[in-house]
Amino acid sequence: MIKEEGLKRRYLVQNIWFAIFWLSMILIAAVLGLILYFILARGIKVINWEFLTAIPRRGMTEGGIFPAIVGTFYLVLGSIVVSLPLGVFSAIYLTEYASSDSPAVKAIRTAIHCLAGVPSVVFGLFGLAVFVKILGFGVSVLSGSLTLGIMSLPVVITSVEEALKAVPLSFREASLALGANRWTTIWRVVLPSSLPGILTGLILSVGRAAGETAPIMFTAAVFYARRLPQSIFDPVMALPYHIYGLMTEGTRPDKQVPLAYGTAVVLILLVIAVDFIAIYLRGKSRRTRKW
Questions:
Q1: pTM to 2 decimal places
Q2: What are the structural domains, with CATH classification, of the chain?
């Protein structure tokens, strides 16, 4: 009798927690749906072929956002080129080579956690001081990509490190037993097996890099550019900064505000498209590499 009452109590507690979990997921999905509906309802009306392929005209009250789309793509691609190799190699060192009890490793991990909590505007000021002024890159694609890449490093390092830890130790032991050295084991066995986790880190870094305004407004973005960037040392227009500019500057808010919502829709769809591509590649990798 006592055992039955104990089991009933445990089932009741379990069901209560399951209900809380479901309510939390429903609440999160509802908030996300509300945000998307709010943006789409106000921005979908202005989206057409000209809006996606033309340049801004008449003080940003007409035309399109093609330069901003191209600039955002350049900045995101540049941030990936900077953060992904550095993040992967750092995670490999921390997981495969470094001793977890070493004071240096503990200091590095602490620095990574602190870096993840730094406000994005601080990264923008750092990029302005170092890349724009000291190194002389100016307000350019290169300065913005380096700044966004450094800002994305903690996310990439943490995600890749967890993915490497998830690879079974037996994989490493089998490779070493067959005569492979440590680096060959990491390159041929560990990294391919952890590819889904690496792509997860890539998804998170792309989402953050594409949506940031503060870092690029000091290092890469301009309110208006007459032409597309010809090199990595040219400034660019970018979707987040374009939204900021439309909502805070200008004399025709009746025309600029709908354009800002339309730009936000394009930015959301761009991030979702990149995320779905990475999710597809991650799922394909998982299907072809079952442990």
A1: 0.84
A2: 49-288 (1.10.3720.10)
